[in-house]
Amino acid sequence: MAKSSGKAPRRPSGNVLADLGFPDADELSAKAVFALRLNEILDRRDVTQGEAARLLGMTQPKVSALRNYKLRGISLERLMLGLVALDHSVEIVVRPRGRSRAPAAIRVAA
User: Fold this and answer.
1) CB 66 within 8 A of CB 58
2) Contact indicator for 54, 63 with CB cutoff of 8 Å
3) How many CB atoms lie within 10 A of CB 30?
4) Is 45's pLDDT higher than 90?
5) CA–CA separation, 46 vs 43, rounded Å?
6) What is the mean pLDDT of residues 52-76?
7) Fewer CB in 10 Å around end: N or C, the chain?
8) What is the mean pLDDT of the segment spanning 66-75?
9) Neighbouring residues of 40: CB distance < 8 A, sequence distance ≥ 6
10) DSSP characters for 32-48?
11) Given pLDDT bands bounded at 50, 70 and 90, which one contains residue 54?
12) How far is CA 33 from CA 3, 28, 96, 102, in A?
């Protein structure tokens, strides 16, 4: 029989990376959304990594990292600029948290 720690289970935050203890969970989640969209666009265009590098203004190794979702060395700004380079608009909205009990957070909808 498993031992109880005596602590109540933590409520999920809605961000699996935060629940796993990543200190930069909001940023990683935002990067993942942008990378997913970039990869979908590149897949539809059926471009090589070299062609993608030229289109995105990145090196081929950065494109390889992007394609494999290894995003720690790629900034949010670079990912947003990549979307713009592929003729997509990126909108950033800043607003007060509101009356909910949920903490203020970074959320990306794509």
Assistant:
1) yes
2) no
3) 19
4) yes
5) 5
6) 95
7) N
8) 94
9) none
10) HHHHHHHHHHHHHHT--
11) very high
12) 38, 9, 22, 21
